[in-house]
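Supplementary Methods. Inverse-folding protocol.

Structures were first reduced to a discrete structure-token string of length 279. This string, shown here, constituted the complete conditioning input.
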């Protein structure tokens, strides 16, 4: 008499393994059903004479994806009906281990890759893509930063904590201006701009290489606070608050930027940058 011991459906775990009684943990990821059957048969031969093993794939299509980075349970996961989308797969792996506001998701498919913000998957459903076998999903923290110097309450290199950051928010993050010494008419934002941006901001057409630019914010102007609120800080920017009157810094700015002088106002420049980012 042939005795048959049917097993319940066995789920491949996050690391690509299954557990079979008396056979132990066996790697399923990367093996076909026939290859897996032979492996299980060999492991059961010490327990059962001439074991007969049948392996069938019952769920999904055998495709798997890899999740790495700031994920609660990194590993290899099968694509099944409940986990066919990017957000569902991340959820099945235990979710994020970092703040959603600073989480970036990179999906690598073959030779191509694409990066989105985690929260954009929920704001824009088209980013919650259907997964394919072999996809690799990397979850990582935003690495952008800026440097705050001068008459601020804290001088340091500061990591971005949100997708976008205004000049006002950048100053608030380091504790604001030192009330006793800071000059609110001389807040400088220094950055390297592309030739395209430099031409548009300076209303020129002869710049062909990246240029060092200094934008000057004057919080005492009627609309100065609003301009600072609307001015976007970028990765690797330097925000400098001077203790001296702005006029004393004209020579220093010229030295920093070469022949390109500082902009006396950022209102026009900010509109230009906003137009560029919208294109």
């Amino acid at each position: 008499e042939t005795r048959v011991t049917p097993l319940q459906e066995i789920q491949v775990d996050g690391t690509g393994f299954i557990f079979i009684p008396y056979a132990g943990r066996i790697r399923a990821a990367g093996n076909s059903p026939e290859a897996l059957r032979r492996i299980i048969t060999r492991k059961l031969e010490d327990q059962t004479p001439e074991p007969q093993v049948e392996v069938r794939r019952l769920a999904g299509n055998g495709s798997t994806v890899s999740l790495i980075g700031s994920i609660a349970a990194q590993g290899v996961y099968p694509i099944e009906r409940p986990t066919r989308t990017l957000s569902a797969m991340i959820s099945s792996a235990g979710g994020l281990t970092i703040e959603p506001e600073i989480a970036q998701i990179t999906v690598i498919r073959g030779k191509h890759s694409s990066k989105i913000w985690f929260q954009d998957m929920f704001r824009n459903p088209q980013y919650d893509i259907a997964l394919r076998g072999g996809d690799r999903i990397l979850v990582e923290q935003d690495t952008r930063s800026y440097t705050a110097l001068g008459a601020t309450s804290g001088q340091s290199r500061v990591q971005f904590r949100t997708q976008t950051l205004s000049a006002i928010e950048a100053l608030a993050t380091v504790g604001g201006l030192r009330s006793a010494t800071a000059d609110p008419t001389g807040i400088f934002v220094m950055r390297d701009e592309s030739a395209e941006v430099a031409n548009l901001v300076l209303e020129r057409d002869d710049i062909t290489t990246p240029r060092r630019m200094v934008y000057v914010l004057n919080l005492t102007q009627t609309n100065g606070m609003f301009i600072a609120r609307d001015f976007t800080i970028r990765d690797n920017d330097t925000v400098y608050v001077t203790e001296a009157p702005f006029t004393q810094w004209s020579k220093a700015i010229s030295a920093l930027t070469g022949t390109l002088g500082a902009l006396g106002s950022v209102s026009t420049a900010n509109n230009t940058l906003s137009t560029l980012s919208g294109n």
